[in-house]
Amino acid sequence: MTENRQKTHNEDICWGRKPVEALLVGMPERCAKVLIAGGVQPHVKAKITEICRSCGIPFQYVDNAALDRMTDGANHQGIAALTAAVKMWDTEEFLRTLPPAPEAALLIICDHMQDAHNLGAVIRSAEAAGASGVMISRRGGCMPTGTVVKTSAGAALRVPVVKIGNISQTVKLLQEAGFWVTGLSMEGRETLFMEDLPPRSALVVGAEGKGLGTEAARACDDIRFIPMRGKTGSLNASVAAAIAMFEWMRSRKE
Length: 254
Description:
This protein is α/β, with parallel strands linked by helices. The protein has helices at about 15-25, 40-55, 65-70, 90-95, 115-130, 145-150, 165-175, 215-220, 235-250, and strands at about 5, 10-15, 30-35, 60, 80-85, 90, 105-110, 135, 160-165, 180-185, 190, 200-205, 220-225.
């Protein structure tokens, strides 16, 4: 398959009607989002959006100038796709690969994490702590681009990265699969270290600056905070996630 590509700081891009269509048909698992400019012919727009809907890939309408900037003025034909450097798993497909309850397993859910370096650091720590996978928001969050792979020291090529839609529905699926879901927030009810995390755990980490979203917090079984000294009000999201992951590993006493 021939692709036109242009790298920006956080995203890998494929542009042009035929290359994007070929990506959607041939490797939908590598397509994070499709961007469509307003001037695209209706029949082309209809075909692209139909494929996106059938594959569960989000699409967004943007102005032509935005695509000009993203592709450095290339002939994008009004269509571009943000591509992932790794396969992105569907939730149900991924859950079938996990050991059945009550066997121990650790999952990380990133609630709309925006920064590629933070996501890469989370994935790197997840591999080191023995997590089974990292789940990321399909809309409004960072995708596993080349920057993420590089920051993760290659861990993103080995640890499953799972795209999720509604956080509450995902948490419910995990609870039905025997997972205890713990959110990390400074508004938590007890410290992370008060009690061992359950063997079958999912940790929810909030976005940079915003923390854990209201919807995600309501869905969790438990909210815990990491006690701190000094004047720093909060930890970097990837640091907080790493502390919680290794606390889970410690509690396994392995």
